[in-house]
Specification:
single chain; Cyclin A, domain 1; 71% helix
Length: 384
């Protein structure tokens, strides 16, 4: 669980549960209970198929119940909300799943539950894009309604502590029964009515009764954990009612449909209407363009001779300007050529002068050498 300083304070009274948004939209208690169980079954089964720990499914089911305490089943489809709650819970528990994996699992579960043909959900199809966009949109609705608070206190952690305190850990069957009862309690509204301590004590109480294990009653063991007997009795009653119900089936009460396996017909009709309107608009724009072209052609034909003369006059002026530009360019070229030729002549003269100076220097040097050698010969002859 991601650390948060906000305590687990999302709890409602029995009066608020009875006056839920679904009841205000005309959904009776039995239908609402069935849809809650159905959505929790989807979340639990999807977590098992994806091999995720129980904490992810538990968090997803709590988020599911909290959302439908503020929104109605008639306005948000139970299948898509269950998928978004499961996806959001995987992020809260730091085990994020890909959107494609969540959609694959829920798509296959719906096909199997409703006896639909198993079809591969292509990630490059428009259907997948629509489902993914709806998954993200529903997740945003859930976060907004819950105030971006995803902190959940599960009874499972307290359950192990209570069993160890009561020295019941060697009782393997009792521990397993209590754990299963804690999991099943998430299919009901107990998680939004009672704190996790009450639910954990209720699971221990029911498991001990089924396994015929006596618990200390003088003083009562539940008072050690700060729980009232009335809360435990209510947990036992709700769990007994849950086990008396048949397997939950999907009941279409949502006004917008929203099946994952099959696209909603109203959405298809809306898309067709949008496409048709776009095509009509495109046709209207084409016809308007053609009409404007015809009008321009008519106005061109209606041009008078004076306009033609003005155009000819302008053309002649342009030609004269072009001729003048050519003349200026020719003059510039000639001037550049003359300058280049003068520059070459100057360079040629400078080269000649440098060569002359170099020759004169060489001549002087040779004369000096001759004079030097002649003086040496004279000295030699004089001494010999």
């Amino acid at each position: 669980m991601i650390y948060t300083a906000i305590m687990d304070t999302f709890y409602l009274t029995d009066e608020q549960i009875k006056n839920s948004p679904s009841r205000k939209d005309g959904i009776d208690e039995v239908t609402e209970t069935t849809l809650r169980i159905y959505g929790c079954d989807l979340i639990q089964e999807s977590g098992i198929l994806l091999n995720l720990p129980q904490v992810v499914m538990s968090t997803g089911q709590v988020l599911f119940h909290r959302f439908y305490c503020k929104k109605s089943f008639a306005r948000f489809n139970v299948k898509r909300v269950a998928a978004s709650c499961f996806w959001l819970a995987s992020k809260f528990e730091e085990l994020p799943m890909k959107a494609s994996e969540v959609l694959y699992v829920f798509h296959r579960m719906e096909c199997r539950r409703e006896n639909l043909p198993l079809e591969h959900l292509d990630t490059s199809s428009q259907k997948y894009d629509d489902l993914k966009a709806d998954l993200i949109r529903t997740e945003r609705h859930i976060l907004i309604e819950l105030g971006f608070i995803g902190h959940v206190e599960h009874p499972h952690k307290l359950l192990s502590i209570y069993l160890a305190t009561l020295e019941l850990t060697p009782e393997t069957e009792l521990v397993q029964r209590a754990w299963n009862l804690a999991n099943d309690s998430l299919r009901t509204t107990l998680c939004v009515r009672f704190k996790s301590e009450v639910v954990a004590c209720g699971a221990v109480y029911v498991a001990a009764r089924r396994c015929r294990v006596s618990l200390p009653e003088n003083p009562p063991w539940w008072k050690v954990f700060g729980v009232d007997k009335a809360g435990i009795d209510e947990v036992c009653r709700v769990l007994a009612h849950l086990y008396s119900l048949p397997k939950a089936q999907y009941i279409p009460v949502c006004k917008e449909g929203g099946s994952i396996a099959t696209l909603n017909r109203s959405q298809e009709v809306a898309k067709e209407a949008i496409v048709k309107a776009a095509l009509d608009k495109l046709k209207d724009s084409k016809t308007s363009k053609e009409e404007s072209k015809e009008e321009h052609a008519k106005t061109d034909h209606r041009t008078d001779a004076g306009a033609e003369k003005n155009k000819d006059r302008d053309r002649n002026r342009e030609r004269q300007r072009d001729k003048e530009r050519l003349k200026f360019r020719e003059r510039d070229r000639e001037r550049k050529f003359d300058r280049k030729r003068e520059r070459e002549d100057i360079e040629r003269d400078t080269d000649k002068s440098t060569k002359r100076s170099h020759r004169s220097r060489e001549k002087d040097h040779s004369e000096k050498r001759k004079h030097h050698y002649s003086s040496r010969e004279k000295d030699y002859r004089r001494h010999h």
